[in-house]
């Protein structure tokens, strides 16, 4: 089907008010890959109407980050979505979303100040603010998000709960290449060689699961083994953390149901991944 | 009519989704007076369904402020609202609105850091957060607020605009006693003598308007005259400011359409008032 393209907030709001049925929403920054498309598939199954937003949100990039050369390809995105049951694509301009004089921010405390929040101090404030805006414009019943950005998922669930948004957030599994690399728009930055090195993220997480299965429980021991594997592949570690899935607090002894999250720099590109220990 | 009393967020949300027509909403902290009732009257005229919330919001009080002895009289509030066309009274508990682990805040920059924001640094963060929550629960078409809390009105309009809430905020004129004292739940704290002294707020604002009509334009000159009048009445000045109505920025020369806002302490009670210069 051909999704209707909407680039004005007012038009989106007006159309939304005329829609009936369950609305499934997928917020994206475009440059879509199979990870995004898996979210669209989930939305198709659980909703009557599917809305995808494409907006490279400037406020979630830190000043030294890759906003200007963040990959974009709106024509290809539209084509990909046209092959699925997407009813509307919302792609507003920066000027509409952040008009002159904009000065309101949604902040989630504590859980935004760990993990990725340490090297990206204003990132989550940008994420929560743009998602609050999009939820107010689109008023979805369900919002679909990937577990690759695990901290983002936890932060947004906290925001939805605390601010009483009626939207339910549905977390969806990480989609990986056959060799295990988690899909990410940033993978595009990697050379062929970097692409191979980047496998260390998933490999180290699988190693952790293996060690856990062999009854090793110490977070420190497991992180040490992961560190060796990653550094052998020339990955530079931003963080590796064993965490509680809800509080994101550090856990010193692994247990079933906890999560290991990491951020690794490969060829100047910062990649993230995580695993739920079972 | 007898308004239906609702004290659960879930019940309020469920009922809301079944309502049709234009919803008018008045958020209050209870201990209602004619100022609040004038907002209800405005809502009656402009809406199909009127919802009033009563919630003494702890997060908008600073630590040294009067939360614990803030005046409350829910029975009287219900009685007053029963004499009007109010459909629902929403009065949730603190535990529901701020459950354990609550950690999300809405912040409006700049315009919350002037005027009342100087002596009440976390006040507006509490106001914007609770109103965001209430708007998400009640999803009103119109929200009615008094101009007495002028900075609050400007801050909330900014939040609604920036975060794309669909609600329209309707500002309503200040309601005054016959002698000019602006109605406030805090007037209850005043002795008979303090009540008389407190007239200096409105009198000094009327003096400013009179001086403007006599072609005096200098903010400093006008504030000096106001200061004399207030100090003669034993009022302690927190601030007197001539401001732009939208940016809340200081203006050095009065002009038609600007506003003068002040906060004065009378008998340990901090009272605010303002006037639009015409």
Outline the secondary-structure elements.
Two copies of one chain form a homodimer.
Chain A: E1 4-6, H1 9-18, E2 23-28, H2 34-46, E3 49-54, H3 74-82, E4 88-90, H4 94-97, E5 104-108, H5 116-119, H6 123-138, E6 142-146, H7 150-162, E7 168-172, H8 192-197, H9 199-213, H10 219-232, E8 236-243, E9 259-266, E10 269-276
Parallel strand pairs in A: 1-4, 2-3, 2-6, 3-4, 6-7
Antiparallel strand pairs in A: 8-9, 9-10
Helix pairs in contact in A: 6-7, 9-10
Structure description:
- The structure is a homodimer of 278-residue chains.
- Chain A folds into two domains: 4-172, HUPs (Rossmann fold); 185-276, Pantoate--beta-alanine Ligase, Chain: A,domain 2.
- Chain A has ten helices and ten strands.
- In chain A, helix 6 crosses helix 7 and helix 9 (199-213) packs antiparallel against helix 10.
- In chain A, the strands form two sheets. In chain A, strands 1-4-3-2-6-7 form a six-stranded parallel beta sheet, sandwiched between helices.
- Helix content of chain A is 37%, strand content 21%.
- By secondary structure, chain A is α/β, with parallel strands linked by helices.
- The interface between A and B is medium-sized, with 25 and 25 residues.
- Strand 5 of chain A pairs antiparallel with strand 5 of chain B, so a sheet runs across the interface.
